[in-house]
Amino acid sequence: MSVVEELYLGVPLWAQILFWIALAISVCSLISVTVLLVNSLREKRQNQRDQRGTPAESEFLWVFMVPALNEEVTIADSVQRLRQTEASNAVFLVIDDGSDDGTAAVLAGIHDPRLHVLTRHAPHARQGKAAALNNAYRHLRESILTQPEYARWSEDRVIVTIVDADGRLDPKAPESAGRRFLDPGVGGVQTLVRIYNRRGWLTWAQDVEFSSFGLVFQAGRAWWGTANMGGNGQFNRLAALADVADDEGPWRHKLTEDQDLGVRLIQAGWAGVQVNDVTIDQQGLNSLRRLYKQRVRWAQGAWQALALLRGTMRGRMPLAGRVDAVFYLLTPILQLVVGFAFVTSIALWVFLGAEYRPSYWWVLIFFFAVAFGPGIITLILRGGRWYSPFTAIVLLLPYTVYSWMIFPVVFVSLLRQLSGRTSWAKTERERLDAADEPSTLVRADS
């Protein structure tokens, strides 16, 4: 009996088909991670060469947009850190989206001529992050850039940066992003996201998740110019935003408006890149309940992004990048199939007594590589002086537990999408304390 025949011996035919599809998806995922890993190493070397180039941040006007809805806990910290940003030409545009706490009072107490506060009132306020950003986009073009001190800046030299109210942007971020924007074809630059309040296992796992995504997946796609935007720490050329804007503005009313914008910029021919030599630190969630609520919203946004598939297939990008972009957009469907196959295998084992007894020892190694290979790779590459292959293997189990714990959001978000429920609640911030200072991180290019 061949290995193909024996692989799922004793399993019902319908389950065999499901398992073969899930296996094919897993193999494709492993191949994808390997290709992106190679690309990320090439991109890293390219970035190191670029760092020896001419300083570029003074060539641009940096407009930092901070959406703020009831952010009295973090807004002062965020603005203060933005004021320390090493940008020769800067504007800080805070969007007070109808706050009813002390956000307005905190902002009123900050005296800096570069600070502009756009206050939104009912009934236009609290209509979602996209509405707030679109309002700020129009205010920037119609009010701020028409002022004499800013009139000299053309839209291709204005860089709009999104910083969430809990964000702590590396002061050197404009210099790093500016080198990439010297290429007139670059429309978006995303910085590496890290979690600064990683005091427990849950926030540690979120930090691994974000940093691994930036160091491997985003950096690998940057080689093709198809790195996506992640909202916090996202830089966009104003000319690129204008290119994809409609009557309301560049952002659409989606649950993940950042992902939607990034994909549409790439489809319009603008390159998206990732920089990992600077970071944007943000709060992680220490509550599993709040984490689920946040991830259900993100996962539902991924379901909504399936509508972008047609434009991606016609996109102006390398063939390999186009295939990867399609694979990326299909992620919720692929996760659903693999998750269903996993649940099915447990059910067959518990209720039907179906057993899996391969006689080929290398089959088990193959399954281990497919199931855990991407996790080991990303844990090794996430950065840090104390990381090693051995450490990555030790940490693989707790991170895998975390991944499977939040996996049900794929199913829950699909049910919400099918039922037409698109409402969402803002993630609550935690109060800051002395332990929440960003740690000294080893940069990805070191």
What do these coordinates show?
By secondary structure, the chain is an alpha/beta fold. The chain has a domain at 1-56 and 182-426 and 440-446. Helix content is 50%, strand content 12%. It is built from 16 helices and eight strands. It has helices at 3-6, 13-50, 75-83, 103-108, 129-144, 173-181, 201-222, 238-244, 257-267, 288-304, 309-313, 319-329, 331-352, 361-381, 389-405, 409-418; strands spanning 61-68, 90-96, 115-119, 158-162, 168-169, 186-195, 234-237, 271-282. Strands 3-2-1-4-7-6-8-5 form an eight-stranded mixed beta sheet, sandwiched between helices. Strand 2 (90-96), helix 4 and strand 3 (115-119) form a beta-alpha-beta unit. It is globular. Residues 438-446 have low confidence and may be disordered.
Mean pLDDT equals 85
Order of SSEs:
HHEHEHEHEEHEHEHHEHHHHHHH
Largest sheet, in brief, is: 8 strands, mixed
* Overall SS class: alpha/beta
Low-confidence stretches: 438-446
Helix content: 40-55%
Query: Which strands sit side by side, in order, in the main sheet?
Result: 3-2-1-4-7-6-8-5
Radius of gyration: 23 Å
**Count of beta strands:** 8
Number of helices: 16
Question: Would you kindly provide a brief summary of this structure?
Answer:
The protein has 446 residues and is an alpha/beta fold. 50% of the residues lie in helices and 12% in strands.
List the helices and strands and how they pair.
Blueprint: H1 3-6, H2 13-50, E1 61-68, H3 75-83, E2 90-96, H4 103-108, E3 115-119, H5 129-144, E4 158-162, E5 168-169, H6 173-181, E6 186-195, H7 201-222, E7 234-237, H8 238-244, H9 257-267, E8 271-282, H10 288-304, H11 309-313, H12 319-329, H13 331-352, H14 361-381, H15 389-405, H16 409-418
Parallel strand pairs: 1-2, 1-4, 2-3, 6-8
Antiparallel strand pairs: 4-7, 5-8, 6-7
Helix pairs in contact: 2-7, 2-13, 2-14, 10-16, 14-15
